[in-house]
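Subject — a protein and its fold
Encoding — discrete vocabulary of local shapes:
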Amino acid sequence: MRMRKKKWAVPELEASPLYIKDPVSFRENWQQAFARPQPLYLELGCGKGGFASQFALANPDKNLLAVDISSNMLGVGRRKIDALFFEAGRTPDNVRLAAYDIERIHEILSEQDTVERIFINFCNPWPRPRHFKKRLTHPRQLEKYTAFLRAGGEVWFKTDDDMLFRHSRQYFLDCGFALRWETWDLANSDFTGNIRTEHEDMFEAEGIPIKALIAVWPGRDNG
């Protein structure tokens, strides 16, 4: 999903303590990017920050690193995070933003950066077979995530796309993950831990059910 270039995005990001200008420099030591050491959570493809802002505000005991390739998106997300925390009378010291190509996520995160959970929300489905490898849930990507996802750690995945969900389900199984929970209709499921975003409102208004799953990484010794 493209948006027009926002001239203010990069200057505002670079002036914000939320933004990590050189994420590679924090590889193996991400806890130093936050106000205090806490369990590290990761959102891949954070877009406009709807999920990141709500998750960080609701979980002050967790650190969230939100990554997106687009500085325009991150600029919007930065404003959203600041506004939500300002309304709550809090400082957003448990969330950081980084602009980076997720296909090269291994360049900014290593096995020393133990991640508790990865969130992938409404990523590009890349429907053409020649582009499947670009999917954030493709086995090529999942293998990279297992380097820093702790044993017993989870990937929470949501999408509106039926084919992507069906393929991703198999990708996780093929890579040694276990499926703890899944649904083809999130709004009518028994799941209580969902954080809604503008994507969900938009797709559900169009009558498109949201698919979701939780995949658990058992660790390399058990996978």
